[in-house]
């Protein structure tokens, strides 16, 4: 029986393991780290080749080992995989992979049982504490739109993207108002990309004037405060873009000016080879749009021919394996206090959920989860 099992070896999971090692909990003996990937890197391992660590994307240094200055010409998937792998080796974390966790169960106050598939065999492992750090990448979200099953073209999600050349000559409908949609629209307009693109969003694109990484950290704290209000009341965390917005970077503003980053509203029906746009009248929020030219909806009933539906509609927390523990509230969320502590089961800690699902927050959550787990384990003896 283990003292603590960590599920997930992304940023939050590695930070948690590091915190536990510092408390004297030995990897592979008292602590076990399970990861579903074939190698290190977490979700970054699966990012598309053109994504680099630049102005819009970056990662925070893991505790105790700064990342070497990233080469902007090297794919982020390679850089982060190498960095995380070095981290695991430096601190001797002995991550077991690929390890697919199927379920976690066990009546309180007894131990938890983790059912996991490793090396082609199903095993049942027992642990006193569980830190869940599975993130969201494995649970892409695609909303239901009438006719979605009748579409004869190609459909894919952010998680499926590889390169712009896969869309050469296609009419592509990019769905979603976040940074991924913005960056894909720009990339698909480069030579070798799509023949044409249309951007569909439910709301006007949320461009913001403020700097994302302002020195005093007030922007990040405000975003986390809003998300934390959801998780502390058992509500599902709101989407990232609703809380952060789109930075008004020069490249993005050029995309608005040339018509690339202009939302045409949202479609309400999917046909065989087209979509039909609906009514886009929105309630007055009392706020002026930062980039009003980015919102020019099609008229209701407009039919737009489409070859590819490219869903950039976000992800949901990968928590299905925790279902037997009945952690969710009636509204579908999990009540979490002090950022990582699950109210319904004090044997379970969530790292990288809700307000800590960011590159900065995941580090903090991992450290907190490791410290809380060590403290609770000490109280058991």
Written account of the structure:
This protein is an alpha/beta fold. Helix content is 23%, strand content 20%. It contains seven helices and 17 strands. It has helices spanning 11-22, 76-90, 179-188, 218-231, 240-244, 250-257, 359-380, and strands at residues 2-7, 31-34, 99-105, 112-118, 121-132, 154-157, 171-175, 196-200, 207-208, 246-247, 267-270, 274-277, 303-305, 308-311, 336-337, 341-342, 348-350. The strands form five sheets. Strands 1, 2, 3, 4, 5 and 17 form a six-stranded mixed sheet that branches. A four-stranded parallel sheet has the order 6-14-7-8, covered by helices on one side. The protein has a three-stranded antiparallel sheet with strand order 11-12-13, with no helix packed on it. Strand 1, helix 1 and strand 2 form a beta-alpha-beta unit. Helix 1 (11-22) runs parallel beside helix 7. The chain is elongated and about 65 Å long. The two termini are 15 Å apart. The relative contact order is 0.18. The model has no long low-confidence stretch (mean pLDDT 89).
């Amino acid at each position: 029986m283990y003292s603590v099992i960590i599920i997930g070896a992304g940023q939050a999971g590695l930070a948690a393991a590091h915190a536990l090692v510092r408390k004297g909990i030995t990897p592979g003996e008292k602590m076990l780290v399970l990861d579903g990937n074939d190698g290190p890197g977490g979700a970054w391992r699966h990012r598309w080749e053109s994504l680099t660590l630049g102005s819009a994307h970056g990662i925070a240094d893991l505790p105790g080992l700064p990342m070497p200055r990233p080469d902007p010409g090297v794919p982020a998937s390679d850089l982060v995989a190498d960095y995380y792998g070095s981290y695991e080796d430096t601190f001797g974390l002995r991550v077991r992979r690929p390890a697919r966790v199927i379920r976690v169960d066990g009546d309180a106050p007894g131990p938890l049982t983790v059912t996991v598939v490793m090396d082609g065999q199903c095993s049942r492992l027992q642990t006193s504490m569980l830190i869940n750090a599975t993130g969201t990448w494995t649970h892409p979200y695609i909303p239901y739109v009438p006719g979605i099953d009748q579409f004869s073209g190609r459909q894919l999600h952010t998680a499926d993207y590889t390169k712009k050349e896969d869309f050469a000559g296609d009419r592509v409908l990019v769905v979603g108002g976040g940074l991924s949609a913005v960056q894909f629209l720009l990339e698909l307009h480069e030579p070798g990309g799509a023949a044409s693109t249309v951007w569909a969003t439910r709301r006007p694109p949320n461009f913001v004037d403020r700097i994302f990484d302002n020195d005093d950290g007030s922007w990040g704290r405000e975003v986390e405060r809003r998300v934390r209000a959801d998780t502390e009341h058992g509500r599902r965390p709101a989407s990232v873009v609703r809380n952060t917005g789109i930075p008004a970077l020069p490249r993005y503003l050029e995309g608005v000016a040339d018509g690339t980053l202009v939302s045409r509203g949202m479609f309400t029906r999917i046909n065989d080879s087209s979509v039909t746009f609906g009514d886009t009248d929105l309630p007055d929020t009392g706020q002026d749009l930062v980039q009003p030219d980015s919102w020019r909806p099609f008229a209701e009933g407009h039919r737009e021919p489409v070859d590819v539906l490219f869903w950039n509609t976000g992800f949901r927390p990968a928590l299905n394996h925790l279902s037997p523990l009945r952690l969710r509230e009636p509204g579908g969320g999990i009540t979490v206090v002090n950022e990582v502590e699950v109210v319904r089961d004090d044997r379970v800690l969530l790292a990288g959920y809700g307000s800590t699902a960011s590159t900065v927050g995941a580090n903090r959550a991992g450290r907190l989860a490791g410290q809380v787990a060590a403290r609770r384990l000490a109280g058991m003896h």
